Every structure is written in structure tokens, then in C-alpha cells.
Amino acid sequence: MNSKKKKNKKPETRSWFSKILSFALFLLILSFVLSFTFLISFSNQKMGEMVQTSNFLSPITSKVYDIKGRLITEFFQENRTPVSISEIPQHLIDAFIAIEDSNFYNHHGISIRGITRALFENIKEGRIVQGGSTITQQLAVNTFLTREETLSRKIKDALLALQIERTFTKNEILEMYLNLIYFGHGAHGVASAAELYFDKSLSELSLAESALIAGIPRRPAYYSPFINLEAALKRKNVILKRMFDLGYITEQEYLQAKEEQIVLNHNRDSKEIAPYFASYVRTILLDKYGVNMVFKGGLKIYTTLDLDMQKKAEEAFSKSGREGALIAIEPQTGHIKAMVGGKNYEESEFNRATQAYRQPGSAFKTFVYLTAIQKGISPSLIIEDAPVVYENGWSPTNYEEKEFRGPVTLREAFEDSINIVGVKLLERVGVREVIQNAQKAGIKSTLRPDLSLALGTSEVTPLEMASAYATIANMGTYVEPIAIIKVEDYNGKILEQNQPAKKQVFSEDVCYVLIKLMEGVIERGTGFNAKIGRPAAGKTGTTDEFIDAWFVGFTPELACAVYIGNDDRKPLGNRLTGGVVAAPIWRDFMSSALQDKPVKDFPRPKNVQEIEVCAKTGLLAGSSCSKKVKVTFLSGTEPTQICYEGTGTLQAMPEPYKGQPSVEETKTPIITGEKKFPLLEEIEILKKEDQKEVDQPEETKEETLQSLVEELRKRLEERDQN
After folding, report:
1. Which of 114, 176, 612, 649 is 20 to 30 Å from 386 by CA-CA measure?
2. pLDDT for 449-480, tens place per residue?
């Protein structure tokens, strides 16, 4: 046994030795490259001149333009109040050193220990989770205009950090660093950050406030308390713990600061046009080009926004007085044309259009029905709207919890957003297929792989919903949403130019049939408040207890998602559904945005049939049917039987679609415990009787099935009379 253990350890020992050897070789090569580059590229005099100027860059304002070349906003180095190191509280300095560079006073510009620790952590995680930069290196990084992820650039940063250390004292380095770093929202330096976030001078900052400020520069777009208070507070506590571990504060100070209530300054004015969109673009640019390039580099950023549409979006949204978001996308290009991320940017910079993950409710049913059509299921298919309980005890309910319609067509169920039919349809077509189709359409968020998916229980953003619906509007071609068309540097050199990334993910005929169903939602269903006097399709969505309300819809040239909901997830109010609160905002925006555009209809593909059917049965309309509607079908799935009695009641089942399980094969609900429902025993008896007829011809079999439904109806009427 012992010999076996020794044999097993040899490969591990060799593997560990190889890693150490490889790492040592890496350091040796890095040292050689550093020295060589230093000798051939830089002189001490040149490096010293770069550092001693202190005014490292000549700032040039970056400008952001809309799709028509009109100025939206400017990004520039503003709101900076330089202060001396003596004016900065010690606990603020300690907070930065604790979280950014705990070995600051001991290294000479670069930290081999920090680089090594970060290297091993990144290897272990398989991704970059730690940086090895010292405070001096971060200062060096900010002296270069561009953010190049190249070896030569990293070497330059390291060399400049070494020269900074030789030229300045540690306190001078800290002073430059703390006056230079970016804290988001246009604030550079700690003094501006204190004023921005707390409306205080540096000397007035508490320990907890100092820790919160120290946590922001790593990722201002994420750790800003105006954008993500929860993340900012968590990082504040991490910094406080680190300060305690390093001996900067006592345990009592740590515990008190950890529990201190943070009161932010919300008395800020914003002069930006389309502030949520500008912030969205700024975040993208900062991640790609860095603070210096964005705020000092004189960039020209050409975006997809249309200021005319943006103004109309803000007007439509502000009329509601509610919190939420609106985002509009051009289906053919993926261009974001308008974005409203909340009712007041000054009060909250949290962008609900891109950052709010909320349940879409019945607005997600669109992907269930898309999958059904894709599988050849007819809009005239009958599914029973009746109570059902699944094995885990879950029982879906309709909006009117105690009302059930009995047999209904899929068209009617979609227009009126009947939940139970949606769940049964999802069970029939398959959860996995629906998830795959939603993802193909543009949903990026994780979706729950269970039947509640039909009711929109998985959280998504308005941007995702607008993008996914735009795919349907674009007749099955997905286009990645984009906000930036082109970026030029100060000299006119193109840094990036974005073209629409397109992919055909669904067939045109499937999308057209679905669009026609979605038009019915507006014409006759829950989306009646979204009528705009031109071809339009959409779907309402409402979550339990009226917490979230949606309307997502489109015309051929514009897709738009409207979400309404409170940040604290409190109910909106009784019966405040998507059709009541979100659809009117969508209507006001879309009708205004498109008022000068010619009316367009959705292009009709060849493999579809539009047929007049009985509204109740879904069968070919008879001469005396009480209500008729025109329904679009995939060729081959349209009904062939006539509603011959014309009573508006279910007289015959539509023929099964190709590949569809016949009604005999359909699974019945699984009832658990003592839960019983009206007619359950009758259903089982009649089902057994029907199974005896399996050898009959197909036509006779369908008549037997219809007689089953009719017999159930008669028994229900008899029970009501008794």
C-alpha cells in the first residue's frame, strides 16, 4: 500500500515542479524583456520628463452624437478639486491602501508578490479575477491616453511606475493618485467624490463613507451607489474588514462602521440629454478604452439613438408618472433608437432598461406559441381551460382565478392570455425547445426549465425582451442590439465601426403566423389599449400581485418594450395589468414616433393561408356562425372541417396537425392528495370508454372524441341545473 502511494505522488510532484519551473522561466523572460525594452526605448531623462510634468495629459472633450449627427452629450474631465495629501483624512488613505495596494510603502513601483498572487488566483479560477497593479502602476496607467492590452504597453506601465517611484515620495504619489482617479458621474479625485456622493468635504467623511468611496474606482459603473447600492455596500464592508485585518482600525470601529447607515446625496442636477442612454454608452466606452481616452481623448462617438424618438419616448413615459423603462429597437439593424431607464435620472441612475431583471409574465408566452407553430400546431387547436395540479402540487391559475372557459382555441387563449392553456401548451411542445427558441430570439438571461416558464417566472431585462420581439418583427432574423455605430479618435482615425450582426433563427412563415396571433392581442385581446391605427403586434404581461406590468410589441419598422414596476417590488395596485398601465405608454410612444412614417404591413410569405373560421371552434366558418375571425395558418395546418351547426359552440375538433399527438395520446393532469375538480370522475370514465374505440377508422374516432366533449358539456349543464 505504501509503495503504491509513493508511485502515485511522483507525477503530482513532477507536475508541481514543472509549474514552478515554468513560472521561474516566465519571470526570467519578463525581466529580460523589461530590461531590453527599457534600454532601447526609454531613457531616464525621457521618463523623468514625463513624470515631472505632473500634467500628464492635455484633456480634449469627447463628443457623443445621435444617428443624425446631432450632439447628445460630452464626456470631459470635470468636477475635479485638487487637494493636498494633508487635507485627505487618514482613514480614507488607509482604505485605499488596504483594498488597492497593502504593500504600498514597501515596494518600489511594482510588486512581484502582488503579480504572483494575482497570477495564481487567475490560473486557479480560469479567468481574470485579480489584478497585480500597485497604486503606482495605476497612476502610471493613467498617464497614457490609450488602454492597450499588449505586452509592450504593460512593460511601459511598469517602467513608468519604477521611474515615478524614483522621482516622487510615497506621499506625493498618493496625492497624485487620489486626485486623478475616476469615481463615476464625471467626478475625478477624492474631493469631488465626497461632494458628489455625500455633499461633504473630505474632513467630514466618516470611516464608513471613506470605505465606500475607496471601493468605487475599481468599477465605477458597477460600484457607484447611485447605480448599484447593494454592490457598493458589500464592497464597503469588504474594505472595512480588510482595514481591520491590517490593523488600520479597531474591532469596535470596524463593527460600528459596518452598521452605519449610509445617506447619499440625491440633490444633483443633470444637464444630459437622454441620460440613461449616455450612461449606457459611457460604460461601454470605459470598459473598452479606459478613463483617459473617454474623458480626455477627444473621441467622436456616433450612436444609434434618434433624438426625435428619444424625446417622444420621454414624453410618453413621463405622462404615466410611474417607475420603469422603455426601450425601442429597429428590427432590421438592431439599432437602439430610444431608451428611458427610469422616471428621474437625478434621483436614480439605475438603468431599468438594461439592468432591471424582472419577470415578464405572459409576455413570455410568445416564445411558447412560437415553438408550437414551429412544430406545426394549428392556432385552431383546442385545449381545455380547466384546473390542473401537477405532481409537485403546483396548480397554475388564470387571471380570474375561479373562472374557466373549457375548450378554447390557441388563438383565443393567446389573445386573452389564458394561463392554464399556456402551461398545457408548454408541456406539450417541451420546455427545452421553448428555452432554446427564446435564446435564439435574443434572451440572454438564465431561464427556469420548468412549466412555470410559460407564465414568465424567469427574470429578464426590457432590452432582452425588445431584442427578442424585434427578431419576430424581422421575420425570424436576429440582429444583435447595438448603441454605437462608430468611434473616431481626435485625429479622425476610426477606432471601431459596428455593422449589424444578423442570423436567421426562425422561418418567415412561422413568424408571420405568430405575428398575426399577436395582432389579435391588440385587436381583440388584452392589448386593446395598444391600438395605433396601423399594423402592430404585441403581448401583455403581468406578474403575481400586480408587481410587474409589461407591454412588448412592434410594427415592421420598430420594436418597443415598456416595463412598469417599483424598485422595491411593491404591487402597482389592484388590476393594474400590463394592458392597463404599460400598453398606453407603448401606444403613445409608437403612434408619436411613427406619425410621419408611411404605414407598412408585415410581408406575407408564401407558405401561409389566411382563412375565416368560427371564433369559438376554430373550424371553417359556417354560414350561420355567430362570430367569425380571420386566422392565419401554416399551409397544411389549417382546418378542413366546417362548423356546420353555426352555434358558436364546439361541434367538431380540428384535425390534428402533422406529427401532433392525437387527443387520445394527450396526458391528463396528475391529481395529488385530496385535490379534486368538477367532472374529474366523468372525464376518466369517458376516457376509458373512448379507449375501447381505438380500432375504429380515423373519421369515426374524431366523432367519438367530439362526443366526449359534448357529453362533458351536457353533464356540466345537468349538474348546474341540479
Report:
1. 612
2. 999 999 999 999 999 999 999 999 999 999 99
